[in-house]
Amino acid sequence: MSCDPAVCSGRPSGSGVSHPVRRWMPAGALALLSALTLFFALPPDGAEAQGFSFYQHSACSMARAGAAVALPCGDGSAIFYNPAALAEQEGWAGSMGAVGVFSHGDFTDDRTRSTTSLESDPRIAPHLYLTYGVNERLAAGIGVYAPYGFGTEWHPEFQGSFLSFDSSLDALYIQPTLSYQLHERLAVGAGLTVALSQVELNRRMDISRQLLPGVGVTFAELGIPPGTPFAEANLASDWATGVGGHLGIQGRIGDRLHVGARFLTPVELDYEGTGSFQPVETGRILPPQNPFNVPGGTPLDALVAASFTEGPLTEQSITTRITLPAQLAIGMGLHVTPELMVSLDYQWVNWSSFESVEIQFEESFLNQTLAQNYRDAGAVRVGAEYDLGEGWLIRGGYLYNQAASPPETVTPLVPEGERNHLTAGLGWEVRPGVRLSGGYHYLMQNDRRGRTSDPADGSLPSVELNDGLYTVGAHIVGFTVSLER
Amino acid sequence: MTIPSHAGPGAWILRALSVSVLLLAAGCDDQTLVATAPEVEDDLFQRYVAMGNSITAGFQSDGINRETQAESYAVFVARQMGTPFNQPLLNLPGCPAPLTNPLTGDRVGDALPQGCALRSSPAPRVLNQVAVPGAAMLDLLSNLEPESNPNPLTTLVLGGRTQLEAALDAQPTFVSIWIGNNDVLGAAVSGMVTEDNVTPPQDFSTRLSQSLNELENGGVAGGVLIGVADVTLIPHLSSGAAYWVAAQGDALPTTFQVADSCAPSQFGGLGEETLVPFGYGFGELMGQAMEGRQVTLDCAQDLQVLSNQEIGELVSTVAAYNDILAQEAASRGWAFFNPNPIFRELYDEGFIPPFPAVQIPSQLFGPVFSLDGVHPSGLGHRLVANGVMEAINETYGTGLDPVDIPDPGVTAGSTSGAGLQTLAEGW
Question: Are the beta carbons of B126 and A111 separated by less than 8 Å?
Fold first, then answer.
């Protein structure tokens, strides 16, 4: 092959003018990086890609809108963006960084026109990669990243708190990976994904939907208005583990065009945890001659107080199962000039596997099925990188993704929708073997109608329940430090 | 090596970029951004809440269910406003089930008078209709005072809230309040006016002011107050003279005697100056007479008969209430509607029968009142709705259209249904 190595090499881009040197990194430093990454790993907000997926696994890739399947950045993030692209890795390389998500949003009620703001705290999603080129054809690596997760928080008094007011899903993937150069123009890679995940759901319980013990009618049938909270349920799982795989292929056509594809298998996770319940004062006082046949002046809370101490709302074990969906991405990258690289990806996520979440309680009558009915969704990513010289790179990109949730399941849990994103960033080679990347990502979700209440027991969710408009956006910033020896 | 600046794949990617820009533009054109709230006749009516008692709640024929609730004047007003109106719907046959024949006591679904079919499911999250049968002015503020009037429907409608609390939960922009009838009605239908069963106007005024202040502080921008109905015009009360005439015409059983004290004044009696509650004349005396027991209606002696003095007290109290309501409305810039001129005209035109039309049990009290003689029929509610909307239009300059007044299909008194339409158009 005769070509400018800076242009034609299958080596991941974003490496600036670095020169691979096979030397050991200090093992202690890497171990420390790994430990820190695991310890501080927090889920993103679920406001970054469709559904509750997250695609910002390095500042370099983020600045290119994640369009990196054909030509991943040279910071080890190829472990996620295309495992095959490690094949030409030379020597040791490691990188770590974090992405901060600053989301904002609100819900505007159709009827009152009042707006309730999302109260999610900023979230940090770290990433860590360590790679080693064993020889000219074989490379190995391990990465830690968080491809799925969300954390949404509303005020507990929010009208949608009966669905969720403070909930999260954390999912960290640890992926040991091997990559092999089959041909000078073709490489393949595979990784084992070990997923660690936990999920937490906090929601209020509506007394109007409860059955009056021994009577067989609901509190609503006796007049208690819907939306009367009497308890807060905290459903928190322990860490669950699941296993999957990640496959990649990368090829080169001609001197300047690179193509690639990757497939991340689904991971099924069985969660076990604890459900606990705290009473919430209803403030309702029953007048005389009430249909509950209790004396006038009796607080409504008195009718359910025993449930928290010796009844069904005592602390109990819970289980649930969630499948983190498969992903398929294909893309191409083109060196338009020696300085300019552009890339285009299409990503598909099998969100239709996220049909419902069934929560099983020790008290089986509390069992709940949270219908989601997600549908497969795609994303188109366009990125570019330009070498400014003297170790500086400038990056930019645009991303469009479809909504994964259907119109009837846009809820406070994940008020997700169709999105457009703009990205930008810089890369700087501080000195040979040390690179710093920074990126910014602006997420614009199209306003989307959604609901704040569940359908009646036994009924399916429908768009008729939608009672307002969700507005969501996010500013995302990320930094990655890469070291090569 | 040199790289051509316009290579084929580059052009392809540029085309893809163009497509992406189009996607961006399409994404911004979000169809979900269309207005979601209904188009109301005026922004003032974005959220309308009706407060009141059994009339507003849709109580008819001594019962209430989702069918009678659908005929409340408040429903018609909300419909003309174009604003959502959620009611605490009650399952059939009702709670209690309405009467189908007040002479036999038959009710919808052969239900018992004490039966209750509970609330319909799913219940609306926000109620626009918070009126409670039996409520008096005090009940807007409290269900727990010794003078409050709670009953099972208080909980079934409000769920442990007061009317005021339930109304404010709906964050109303506009309210209608028709309350106060029960501050005097108990005295009227019992035939005995005492200090305990008529609310003093001063208390009425204080409670009204407090309620209105809390509503305005809660964001209510406007409203309409509806005057207390003149209880002497309801067909539940018939003059003693009407009973005397019926007895003279052998329209009553031979065991049912009517004393000369009930005769018209030209025959030396007090008849026109007294009112006999249906519950006493027909419910108690007629019931005993039909069992063969000898009974006598005495307009001078029977405590259950309203005397001229008692009638005067009721009329003056209602007038005092309505003065208070009118003043409160005027001081706040709200609308006020006094229904009594309409009822008086209906009475004078014969649409409110002076004596129960026992030959037509389905219209015992005429087309304008339901089968308990106290609560308006669906037709009566339509007439009230038009009067209320006319008052709103006059005060706020809005353009609420009147609802159609259907032909009642019967002749009441000397005036036909077509005449009722003409009468209504004249108001």
Answer: yes
Provide the domain limits for residue B258.
237-297
Residue type, B357: A
Please tell me the distance from the alpha carbon of residue B130 to that of residue A238, in angstroms, as a whole number. Answer: 46
Region of residue A16 (phi > 0: left; psi between -120 and 50: alpha; otherwise: beta): left
- Report long-range pairs for B281-287 (Cβ below 8 Å, ≥24 apart): B281/B238, B281/B243, B282/B102, B282/B103, B282/B356, B285/B256, B286/B252, B286/B253, B286/B256
Name chain B contacts of A342, Cβ cutoff 8 Å. Answer: 10, 13, 17
Residue of A nearest to B158 (CA): A223
DSSP B270-305: -GGG-EEEHIIIIIIIIHHHHTT--EEE-TTT-TTS
The first and second tokens of residue B403, run together, are 């609802």
We report the CATH number of the domain holding residue B197 as: 3.40.50.1110
Contact A195, A173 (CB under 8 A): yes
Q: Number of folded domains in chain A? A: 1
Any CB–CB contact under 8 A between A471 and chain B? no
Query: Tokens 């960033």 label which residue?
Result: A425
* Domain assignment of residue A82, given as a range: 5-484
Chain B partners within 8 Å of A4 (Cβ): 1
pLDDT for position A311: 86
Min Cα–Cα distance to chain B from A134, Å: 31
Q: Which secondary-structure segment (H or E) carries B391?
A: helix B378-396
Co-location of B147 and B293 in the same domain: no
pLDDT more than 90, % of chain B: 74
Would the pTM count as exceeding 0.90?
no
Same domain (yes/no): B343, B217: yes
Tell me the mean pLDDT in the region A83-90: 87
For residue A467, the chain B residue with the least C-alpha distance is B36
> Which chain B residue is nearest to residue A224, measuring alpha carbons?
B159
A468 CB near a chain B CB, below 8 Å? yes
Say which residues have a Cβ less than 8 Å from residue B331's Cβ, sequence separation at least 6. none
Identify the domain boundary among B277, B297, B317: B297
Location of structure tokens 């472990």: A79
ipTM above 0.95, yes or no: no
Token digits of residue A368: 């709940």
Backbone angles phi, psi at B169, to 5 degrees: -60, -25
Cβ-Cβ pairs closer than 8 A, A with B, add up to: 167
Give which of A9, A107, A112, A300 to mutate to test B binding, by max B Cβ within 10 Å: A112
pLDDT tens figures, A112-135: 889 999 998 898 899 999 999 999
Cβ–Cβ below 8 Å for B20 and A380: yes
Domain boundary among the residues B263, B297, B331 is at B297
Q: Is the dihedral of CA B212, B213, B219, B221 positive or negative?
A: positive
Task: Give B-chain residues touching A285 at CB under 8 angstroms.
Answer: 143-144, 160
Domain count, chain B: 2
Which of B143, B147, B151 would you mutate first to test chain A, the one with the most A CBs within 10 A? B143
What was the pLDDT predicted at B170? 96
Q: Give the Cα-Cα-Cα angle B158, B164, B166 (nearest 5 degrees).
A: 40
Residue B225 has pLDDT above 70, yes or no: yes
Q: Phi first, then psi: what are they for B17, rounded to 5°?
A: -60, -40
Residues B249 and B210 in one domain: no
Q: Could you say which residues from 137 to 166 on chain A have a Cβ atom under 8 Å away from some Cβ of chain B?
A: 159
Does the distance separating the beta carbons of B127 and A225 come in below 8 Å? yes
Measure the CA–CA gap between A382 and A362, rounded to whole angstroms: 49
User: Cα(B94)–Cα(B67) distance, rounded to whole angstroms?
Assistant: 9
* Cβ separation B121–A221 shorter than 8 A: yes
For residues B242 and B185, state if they share a domain: no
Tens digits of residue pLDDT in B329-344: 999 999 999 999 999 9
**B199 and B326 fall within a common domain:** yes
